[in-house]
Design brief:
The structure is a single chain. By secondary structure, this protein is mainly beta. It has one domain (4-77). The chain contains one helix and four strands; from the N terminus they run ββββα. The protein has one helix at 67-77, and strands at residues 4-19, 26-40, 43-55, 62-65. Strands 1-2-3-4 form a four-stranded antiparallel β-sheet, with helices on one face. The longest helix has 11 residues, at 67-77.
Length: 90
């Protein structure tokens, strides 16, 4: 019997203050990276899909962000990927 599947891990890269395109309010937007990995016998082997999103904390609108846009947003925020994670992981 072979047990396989997928596991998704979501990491908040930064908390940004942006103008929401949906509601027009200036609100906090967490920049998240979700990595889905293929697992075999509950061991993560390789990434299958990576998605980056921002979500307005005022209205809840979620927007997909490309890799280039995410790195540009992180650069404007003064943070580098992988240097700070919210919430702290234990």
């Amino acid at each position: 019997m072979v047990i396989f599947g997928f596991r998704t891990k979501v990491v908040v890269l930064a908390m940004l203050t942006l103008l929401c395109p949906g509601c027009g309010n200036r609100a906090a937007h967490p920049l998240r990276r979700a990595v889905t990995k293929f697992t075999l016998f509950f061991i993560s082997l390789f990434p299958v899909r990576t998605a980056r999103t921002t979500q307005c904390t005022f209205c809840g609108l979620t927007s997909r962000v490309s890799r280039d846009q995410a790195s540009q947003l992180l650069g404007q925020a003064g943070e580098r990927p992988g240097t700070r994670q919210y919430p702290p992981q234990g």
